[in-house]
Model the fold of this input.
Amino acid sequence: MKIVQLKKTNDSSWEYLSKDINLIKPLVLVLGNRYLLESTTIYDEVKSLFPDGHFVFGSTSGDITSNTVDDKSITITAVEFERTEFIIKTSNVLSSDLDSYKTGVNLLKQFPKEGLKYVFVLSEGSFINGSELTKGMNASVFNNILITGGLCGDAARFEKTVAGYNENPKSGEIIAIGFYGKSFEASFSIYGGWTPFGPERIVTKSENNVLYELDSQPALDLYKKYLGEKSKELPAAALLYPLNVKSTEEKQSFVRTILNINEEKNTMILAGDIPEGSQVQLMMTNVDNIANASERAARQALELRNSKPQLALLVSCIGRKLVLDQRVEEEIEEVVAVVGDNTTICGFYSYGEIAPFHGENNCQLHNQTMTITLISE
Done:
């Protein structure tokens, strides 16, 4: 495996973060600031660097390398595989009547089954129902194929996200990359580092990802009560106080970020489904807990491997980035310290992370986690 990384900010020229070597038909991941990716020349510009590459674009809430976290740049990670084949398929949720489940089903059905080892998914993140998308992908999956990835971001603006394959990025796009090869190895782990606090409440009314009532009371009113003065900073403040959800449908509790609120309807819009009858509790964290969680995720992913990783794909949540603030690089430093300097770090801050629970097979939508996928061939 040969890897080249480059970065640019605004109108600056591309800066090589690694040695400039010639790559043959590389997979080229182009992750970064949404405004920069909306340039009408971005595809041609990147293609001029790798004329025979396969280009996957995605907007982020910050692109990640081993050196920096930056939300005002674009990072390119170009990978030439020596013994691995990859196939890239796309779907657009706008063309499937906003049916996220059907989109997930159809996306995974496009892949030839024989030899498929792993699928990395980069999804639009502004209006997709990530829970339904993952359910659809699980419905089409076979032989416990590992699926990880994330929802694109747009810093903390939540205006729109863009993604694309071999064209300028656009809204609604979902890209899946399937990896094939006998020597290909992928391992993963996720961890959050958030702590529940306060009383548990029962979800008495919800619809998909919209929360109406807790304990038969308006959910937004209760949430504001617990936030106190910080409720004036909603919806941004909600990223710092997500919900821990215990559902009868899942063995493990999961975290849901509040993306927006509807004052008129007194509701909260979450990043994924929140089933009626589930129990919810507020969560909080600090810098040390987040950094420790990233270290733990890296160690778990490393323990599951037979060979040393060559590439680490990191997807972390925008809410974690807001908590870390000026110390945002610390959770990346923890990962690098575990996987080693010889492992290339590529990743982004997202609006939702896609991975199974640790020790399980079916992928899920997560919030407020660090998801790490380690790859080698």
Q: What stands out?
A: The mean pLDDT is 94. The chain has two domains: 2-191+288-376, 195-283. Residues 2-191+288-376 form one domain.
